[in-house]
Known about the structure:
Elements: E1 3-9, E2 13-18, E3 23-28, E4 31-34, E5 39-42, H1 46-63, E6 70-73, E7 78-82, E8 85-96, H2 100-105, E9 112-122, E10 131-132, H3 134-139, H4 145-168, E11 171-183, E12 186-189, E13 198-202, H5 212-215, H6 221-231
Antiparallel strand pairs: 1-2, 2-3, 3-7, 4-5, 6-7, 8-9, 8-11, 9-10, 11-12, 11-13
Helix pairs in contact: 1-6
Pfam family, one: SAICAR_synt
InterPro entries: SAICAR_synt/ADE2_N, SAICAR_synt_PurC, SAICAR_synth, SAICAR_synthetase, SAICAR_synthetase_CS
Family: Belongs to the SAICAR synthetase family.
Amino acid sequence: MEKREALYAGKAKSVYLTDDPDRLVLHFRDDTSAFDGQRVESLARKGMVNNTFNAFIMGKLQAAGIPTHFDSQLSDTECVVKRLDMIPVECVVRNIAAGGLVKRLGVEEGSELNPPTFELFLKNDALHDPMINESLAETFGWATPEQLARMKTLTFQVNDVLKRLFLDGGMLLVDYKLEFGVFKGEIVLGDEFSPDGCRLWDAKTREKMDKDRFRQGLGGVIEAYEEVGRRIGIDFG
Length: 237
């Protein structure tokens, strides 16, 4: 497969066209951002760690019957994915109260949420990814009711798989966000799954092992990511 010109550069990944119109190359950079890009730093090894982490997780999800855009890992920092028609709606599941939920509702951080909550957000940096509902998504043409229903089903299937995976590694999957797209008429999980897009706490100490270490200036960001990976069986080489 031939990697061609850049299609898009996001906050932490660059996307490249290939000689196959149905495939793209994702390049995971060392860039790390927070607060809608207001704070950006480069962290050594981050691109390699997140690319390897994502490949492992996508493999676990595919093995569980969840369709993803991931095809193969191309190098330490690149992978090949299916080219999706992305749906501009993020799906968020929360198993434990943290982050934005605590700020919005005043609930205590660390409270178990039973059943887990499911929320939708419009993927729009300029508007700071506002929370939306199914009615708004349908009215403005961001997603159809059928697509939203399928996205919700898949998002909770991911929760079932990954809660157990991380718990077996002594960690709590606090919350996470997913993005979906359409590939040949099918709803498919896109983007990535790494500690950049979820919250993970040590099950005993509640130590934060995710991007909150960067947001809150706790340090040891990549070391925490690698520790998460090691606990679930990832070999970073």
